[in-house]
Amino acid sequence: xxxxxxxxxxxxxxxxxxxxxxxxxxxxxxxxxxxxxxxxxxxxxxxxxxxxxxxxxxxxxxxxxxxxxxxxxxxxxxxxxxxxxxxxxxxxxxxxxxxxxxxxxxxxxxxxxxxxxxxxxxxxxxxxxxxxxxxxxxxxxxxxxxxxxxxxxxxxxxxxxxxxxxxxxxxxxxxxxxxxxxxxxxxxxxxxxxxxxxxxxxxxxxxxxxxxxxxxxxxxxxxxxxxxxxxxxxxxxxxxxxxxxxxxxxxxxxxxxxxxxxxxxxxxxxxxxxxxxxxxxxxxxxxxxxxxxxxxxxxxxxxxxxxxxxxxxxxxxxxxxxxxxxxxxxxxxxxxxxxxxxxxxxxxxxxxxxxxxxxxxxxxxx
Length: 366
Fold this sequence. Notes:
By secondary structure, the protein is α+β, with helices and mostly antiparallel strands. It contains 10 helices and 10 strands. The protein has a 5-stranded antiparallel β-sheet with strand order 8-6-5-9-10. Strands 3-4-7 form a 3-stranded antiparallel β-sheet. A hairpin with a 2-residue loop joins strand 1 (78-79) and strand 2. Helix 8 runs antiparallel to helix 9 (306-317). The N and C termini lie far apart (65 Å).
């Protein structure tokens, strides 16, 4: 043991004395275990003390080695005047809070620890807790405020130069000052929103230079990740890398503030009725070579037949009233029938459209 720790070991021996006192066997076993624990704690402090802001720790092995030791003790219930149970609770909570962070945040926490706090194991643990609390305060700034389905066949996009575009995707809103700390977009250097199905990335949007120029003084913003339309934002660079019918189950926002990284997540639970429009879109788009063209310019794909058109019609019929795209898809089905059977005319579908009155949930942050 390092100089000065022998007295601490002696105190541990006294604190862990059984109610009936020690016999020779339990005295020796308890003493050996206390010394072994003390040596592990000394190694932990040494690992911490060897790190610095320029050469930070790479993981929490200085904490997990303590957990491994204390989990295995047989004769001790007290260490340094604290119950081993309470110390384990503290240690496990440190690991839990650290592992809840993403990789970039973990690196930031390890780099921000005050490595001069190495006088004792307690001091090293308090230093880690202070760094974790600072990261939690940064995370508290960010919140996802809404995720909704954007269904509009005539959105007046700024990028459309006075025209309209079709939008079928997901609008996401975030607050960069959720804890009222005065933060604005100008206090960040990167804003990324991602949509996942489980752990599979479906689409994302990244706030761009134009967005920073237009909205830097705002504390909240929103944008649309288009899964099956023509939307091109001016403030965001958005992309969709999955099938239209892949439905997100989680939204993740990651913001690089000037003093740290914040992340926020929101679980998504869209109903079957809400997502039928995406299934219909996939089926209808599969009928045409150019599904985003005007209806009169559509061209059937090779191999499309009566059965595939009817299958698409069934999915369109299943979409509830109020969908802007449902009206369009009814027209596209009629066009598919007329192209397949030009001598018979287009005919009409079993169910007429709902009118172009779908709710426009597309972001105003074009």
